[in-house]
């Protein structure tokens, strides 16, 4: 999801921007503005001091404001490179995190977690680079103001802008949260097409300006295929570093297994979501564990596992939309934070986590060239490997196949958008006989 504003459906106010996993767009028009959080005293007359931190706020007529700086409420008035000398020696080198859909609700939960240190670690300073849109610029400034007001020591700089080529510059991480909403009467293929175009542009922008080692997490729906589109346009980046978010589904599955078993969530492990972040996803109870035992030995009600648990997880996002009138936001943000933590910390021995990644060379016979959710583990260095050897019984295999077919169909719908891909693109064509996987209430 990127926060680029479309002129279409989204209702936004300056403070309450409705960004959901299906609900925002990114545009690449205007300029980037800086909101800066400093730890070094600024000496300008209209500098505002907070402890040892000062931020200069320029008025619209302020000195140094550029004509092409329409968001120029905030400007960095000190040399950020001096920052290194003034901070704890135990801190790691700063990482730059770009976030699209930054004025939306998911970001509003996520950004403050990142800035607090609870995601990348309490010794990890961060720069936040926030992508919004023309329509969200006021809200984006509000987000930057609130970040400043929190006095997070680890947050060294905030940049806001609506040009992804500026905002993604030098990014170590790109969290692509914004995506366009589905409008009334639109088919899934229409959504793929519209959002696909956004992820073509963002993939190209990442290719041009992000670090080649940048890790990209796609949240905007349809996130698996959006991730495929983005990576297809970013040959300078390692395609293995593109992810689509299925950790949210894993968390949902863990919670429901725990509730059924009458245990606390923490005792549930080894849960994987296979496939697409859609209603064809396969929440795997076969390999799941509760208190170290097979979940199927603790929950012996197979009918519940197959016919209640499974569809409940597959459709939980849609149910939430019905309840809330919008997509999940807080739980999505938490799961993005979990996803990042899964990559920057070593996975506990014997466990795994879910993430949708490029399927090339996977050990489960899923066709190459799609972004499919697998059980993965990490050494904590930002990379991952797919965990081989999980039991795939007939029940799982049949459903995993269905999700694979759905992803192949989605890819067929956007074949023209992955045409420059460095992955093989089968000639699937569009329209496809695509079972409608719209989540109830998604309209
Ligand atoms: C979710 O799973 O909560 C969302 O992806 C649903 C949606 O379509 O926004």
Contiguous runs where pLDDT drops below 50 for at least 5 residues: 1-20, 22-75, 420-443
- Give the total of beta strands: 18
Averaged pLDDT, please? 80
Largest sheet: 7 strands, mixed
Order of helices and strands: EEEEEHEHEHEHEHEHEEEEEHHHHEEEH
What's the overall geometry? globular
| Number of helices, where a helix is a run of at least 4 consecutive DSSP H or I residues | 11
Q: Determine Rg (CA atoms, Å).
A: 22 Å
**Helix percentage:** 25-40%
- In whole angstroms, how far apart are the ends? 17 Å
**Strand arrangement across the biggest beta sheet:** 1-7-6-5-8-9-10
- Strand percent estimate: 15-25%
Bound molecules: (2S)-2-hydroxybutanedioic acid
Structural class: alpha/beta
Q: Which descriptors apply to this entry?
A:
single chain; 443 residues; alpha/beta; seven-stranded mixed beta sheet; three-stranded antiparallel beta sheet; 31% helix; 16% strand; globular; disordered N terminus; disordered C terminus; binds (2S)-2-hydroxybutanedioic acid
Outline:
The chain has eleven helices and 18 strands.
Written description of the protein model:
With about 450 residues, this protein is of the alpha/beta class. About 30% of the residues lie in helices and about 15% in strands. It has eleven helices and 18 strands. The strands form five sheets. A seven-stranded mixed β-sheet has the order 1-7-6-5-8-9-10, with helices on both faces. A three-stranded antiparallel β-sheet has the order 2-3-4, with no helix packed on it. A hairpin with a 2-residue loop joins β2 (about 45-50) and β3. α1 (about 105-115) packs parallel to α10 (about 330-345). It starts with about 30 loop residues before the first strand and ends in a 30-residue tail after the last helix. Residues about 1-20, about 20-75 and about 420-443 have low confidence and may be disordered. Bound molecules: (2S)-2-hydroxybutanedioic acid (LMR).
């Amino acid at each position: 999801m990127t926060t680029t504003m479309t002129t279409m459906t989204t209702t936004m106010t300056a403070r309450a921007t409705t960004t959901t996993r299906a609900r925002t767009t990114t545009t690449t028009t205007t300029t980037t503005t800086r909101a800066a959080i400093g730890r070094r005293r600024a000496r300008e007359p209209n500098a505002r001091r907070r402890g040892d931190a000062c931020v200069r706020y320029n008025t619209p007529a302020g000195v140094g404001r550029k004509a092409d700086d329409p968001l120029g409420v905030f400007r960095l008035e000190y040399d950020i490179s001096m920052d290194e000398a003034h901070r704890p020696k135990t801190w790691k080198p700063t990482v730059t995190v770009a976030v699209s859909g930054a004025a939306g609700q998911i970001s509003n939960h996520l950004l403050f977690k990142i800035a607090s240190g609870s995601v990348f670690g309490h010794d990890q300073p961060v720069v936040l680079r926030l992508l919004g849109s023309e329509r969200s610029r006021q809200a984006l400034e509000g987000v930057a103001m609130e970040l400043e007001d929190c006095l997070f020591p680890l947050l060294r700089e905030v940049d806001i802008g609506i040009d992804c080529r500026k905002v993604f510059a030098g990014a170590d991480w790109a969290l692509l949260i914004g995506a366009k909403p589905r409008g009334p009467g639109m088919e899934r293929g229409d959504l793929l097409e519209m959002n696909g175009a956004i992820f073509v542009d963002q993939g190209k922008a990442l290719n041009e300006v992000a670090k080649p080692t940048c890790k990209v997490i796609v949240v905007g729906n349809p996130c698996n295929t959006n991730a495929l589109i983005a990576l297809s346009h970013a040959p300078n980046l390692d395609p293995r570093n593109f992810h689509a978010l299925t950790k949210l589904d894993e968390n949902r599955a863990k919670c429901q297994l725990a509730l059924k078993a009458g245990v606390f969530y923490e005792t549930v492990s080894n849960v994987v979501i296979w496939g697409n972040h859609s209603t064809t996803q396969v929440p795997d109870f076969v390999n799941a564990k509760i208190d170290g035992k097979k979940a199927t030995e603790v929950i012996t009600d197979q009918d519940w596992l197959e016919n209640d648990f499974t569809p409940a997880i597959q459709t939980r996002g849609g149910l939430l939309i019905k309840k809330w009138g919008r997509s999940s936001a807080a739980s999505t943000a938490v799961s993005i934070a979990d996803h990042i933590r899964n990559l920057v910390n070593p996975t506990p021995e014997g466990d795994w986590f879910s993430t949708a990644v490029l399927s090339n060379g996977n050990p489960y016979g899923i066709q190459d060239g799609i972004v499919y959710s697998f059980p993965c583990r990490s050494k904590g260095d930002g990379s991952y490997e797919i965990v081989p050897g999980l039991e795939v019984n007939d029940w799982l295999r049949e459903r995993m196949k269905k999700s694979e077919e759905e992803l192949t169909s989605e890819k067929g719908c956007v074949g023209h958008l992955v045409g420059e891909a460095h992955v093989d693109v089968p000639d699937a064509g569009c329209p496809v006989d695509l079972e409608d996987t719209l989540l109830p209430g998604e309209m």
